[in-house]
Design a protein that fits this description.
By secondary structure, this protein is an alpha/beta fold. It has a single domain, classed as Luciferase-like domain (TIM Barrel). 44% of the residues lie in helices and 16% in strands. Helix 2 packs parallel to helix 3 and helix 6 packs parallel to helix 7. The radius of gyration is 19 Å and the shape is globular.
Amino acid sequence: MLRLGYKASAEQFGPAALLSFGVMAEQAGFDSVFVSDHFQPWKHTDGHAPFSLAWLGALGASTTRVTIGTSVLCPSFRYHPAIVAQAFGTLGAMFPGRVVLGVGTGESLNEVPATGMQWPEFKERFARLREAVTLIRRLWREERVTFAGEYYRTENATIYDRPASEVPIYVAAAGAVVARYAGRAGDGLICTSGKGAELYTDTLLPKVAEGLAEEVARPFERMIEVKVSFDTDRARAMEDTRHWAALALAPEEKHSVEDPVEMERLAAGLSAERAASRWIVSTDPDEHVARIRTYIEYGFRHLVFHAPGPDQGRFLRLYGEQVLPRLRALPEAAPGA
């Protein structure tokens, strides 16, 4: 069955406004609300970075139905995995069956300013993520956990408040190695749209399948954040993407950038066309759904929509009225499809 979610952009809006959008998303018919976990935003001017864990508690208490979670949180640097286990144990106990922990290897933009650390290479970041997930799960499943890993330690640690059913962990992947790990050790995959068909069809989803084949069969969610700028006014839809121009920077252009001021400077030099290149920009709902359907055909069944504009209420209303019903009417949206 197709699940349709809303991405709450913590880098763009303050906590109170963002909470109102999360509530509106449930009212508009979305199935989930996922929030980014940033210490610093992608741009300094008018940027925001509310604390995702406090915000999720408020969202859970303000809604009744939507799945809520992080997309994504790094459990390896700013946070000790034991604290992540405690936080999501509490959220899961308060909102049973509605919480997801989405994790990734992290970004220097968030971790370096908060800690003053030297940003490590991918090998260490991935090793830390694997060890963190192992420790989080042990803390959820065992009592009095004494853990001596390469990066983390606990001694007689107990998570006293946790749900009867374990919070699922989705793993964010942008390449083959982490995608295979997501299939082997995660409950779901998280990735983002707009990066070329081969990444999804030839790398991410096949590697997830390889990882899943190594384990006992279990439910697994294939989730993708789809970047959409949908409006009745095309000029407005194009202009809205400018706020997120940094996402169009190549990895080598932003790899070691930890300062939002510098990230904003780099993004400001991009053309309007390049700033919009990661987004599905559309004014026609049928054409818009046809482009989104491509990701469904790849095999994704949980689509979380990230809209770039300042008027999120307008987006939620338009999407709820014109796009969500069309998506739910697709044959792929039927239960068991």
